[in-house]
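Quick start: what a row looks like.
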Amino acid sequence: MTTQGELFSAPPLDTLLFEKTAYCTGFTSVAGIDEAGRGPLAGPVTAAAVILPIGLLICGVDDSKKLTPDKREMLYDVIMNQALSVGVGSIDPAEIDRINILQATRLAMLTAVNNLSIPPDLLLIDGISTIDSSICQKTIKKGDSLSLSIAAASIIAKVTRDRLMIEMDTTYPGYGFSGHKGYGSASHMDAIKRLGPSPIHRLTFRGVKEYIACTCSS
């Protein structure tokens, strides 16, 4: 007898294969899940969960890292308009420092799933880590390139987080958040050295923790 694991073991021939296999084996609501902002020195980690209509193929949807900002923005609107449900979850830097980035990422994903308006019965998760949910889960390495639902989630998560970091550039000027989005660019590292960490920096991260003493009291 074919097991559920065997049904998902073959590499997909198209970006809907995981979803098609799931629906053909009895699942009724499949959500793709991905995150953005795991590596930056500042800002939240943000995750998205996306349930697409069965068989819907959105041209151009791919791993968000492969797309230009303009393309991501355009596809964000398309996904939001055509998805059956979209959930987003963000975990702030203080919580990241408290529980570590892996656990914060898993929590952001769980929050995104809980924010879906339609309860999923299968989660397709980018990467190798499951989340603390009783819902059936399938982790997929490089899932944002292999599953349309996960790719759609990667776009929603990335655009949502980028927009927030652009807002933070106004709130905390001088760091250049609108440009590097919190990642460890040379200009960002220089700003941390000059100004000390801001309230949205991750104080346990290398490249930030060395300069905590530089933070000026407000």
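That is the whole record. The CA atoms of residues 63 and 145 lie 5 Å apart. Residues 6-13, 214-218 have pLDDT under 50 and may be disordered.
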